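Ticket 4471: requesting a sanity check on a complex prediction with adenosine-5'-diphosphate. Repro inputs:
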Amino acid sequence: MSSLDHLPAGYTLNEYRIESVLGAGGLGATYLATDINLNLKIALKEYLPVDCSARATDHAVHARTGPADGEAFDWGLRRFLDEARTLASFHHPNIVRVMRFFEANHTAYMVMECVEGQPLSTWMNDRRPLSQNDLLNIVDALAGGLAVIHKTAYLHRDIKPANIFMRTDDSPVLLDFGSAREIKGGDQEITAMVSPGYAPLEQYHAHGKQGPWTDLYALGGVMYWMITGTKPVEAAARIRQDVMTPARAQLSTGLYTAEVLDTIDWALKPHEDERPQSVADFMEKLGIAPPDPVSRRAMHVTAARTTQSDTQFVQTMPAQPLSFEPELLKRIEAAAALHIGPIAPVIVRNATRKATTVAALCERVAAEIEDEKARAAFLKKFEGIDQPQPLTTQPRSQPQAGAAVQTHTSAPTIAPELLKRTETELARQLGAIAAVVIKRAAAKARNEAELYLLIADEIQDPVEKKVYVRKAVLASKPR
Ligand SMILES: Nc1ncnc2c1ncn2[C@@H]1O[C@H](COP(=O)(O)OP(=O)(O)O)[C@@H](O)[C@H]1O
Ligand SMILES: [Mg+2]
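Returned structure tokens:
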């Protein structure tokens, strides 16, 4: 793709005026643009797969000529839109904020906050050697974002220094989701697009067992690069004989503890089963897992980020619901029950675990109401009560009196056979990540209905999602 194929400066698309090209990757171009209405700089990402599309003189993007191109283009376009939808639902200070997305010029666009700063790849230039404290602050923030992504059964798949943006306050932001996704052609052939050094072996082949450990390999790789200045040896070259110098060799510098260096080597194990399986495993080994959210906040989060970072604790730690007004929750439950029946309290409770505002909470509940009019009426009822809710989490040992939703830390109560069966079913849709989803859901759920709802939360496909919501409804009926 030549630079002629990019939108020119001054070109206007809806309310966005293109200023310049920020970057061009295999699947898209990212522009710096101005929102003319708000007079605000934004980043605009355009779906523009280099291998199967071209731009016409009217700026529209077309698939190239072959029928396989059309299919690959459409498939990728759907993924791009799915991606945008998912990203738009993430609210985390260390994940780039997607404000909206739209289709135009026969392709699709994602509108993102424009982050001021520079990519980690250049930020590091004059910062070596990096202190362990600085390293861990960055990794802690990124891992928090990653945990939020993994919770939705998504993987980033292209974590590397160029896709981590450092704000001017030195906090990191994860960019560029989905550019490492497999591109599927009509014949199911898969072309893996990987970033050598940061991509583990399972990303190189179609049947690779990908999961949170895949992103953790890349994050370990980024840490390796930050402390050694060299990226890890390409995964494929490490299989027969691992010639990579372990991070542990840096111990002699006296800059990093054995614990931290060993965690990097652990994340970078060639075999996926030998790596940390979740962000929580990884952070615990790094020694930055919080004893409780309050002390963790005091340790790592700057004042400006405190509020949003709390969301991270809620999302990464089981059963730490936000505090919503109990009376309001009762009203929401009652209104929802009119449409979805006795499952309403479970749905509402579940939504409190994820939503950070009343509006977001109602949106989540409304998503379960099938009838469009009923859904609109439900939302209307709670419109305007969107005063920000206190985003405080409570340490487990001191549940706040009057909290609407009690935390529970009791041992899992779901029969192991049921878990096994559900995992097998779920693996058909989610693959290897099903095991992780089930493990997390089982740790939180107090009964079968809650288990299914927690699973439903992790499924993107609306039809498949419904299957689990229905299971929850059935399980919640008195037998
Ligand atoms: N939201 C953003 N704010 C500021 N710069 C951005 C933003 N998104 C991307 N960029 C810049 O554009 C470059 C390319 O964007 P990226 O999303 O990584 O796409 P790709 O690597 O596929 O071209 C990034 O490395 C970064 O420098
Ligand atoms: Mg990129």
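Notes from triage: The longest strand covers residues 16-24. Leaving this open until the requester confirms.
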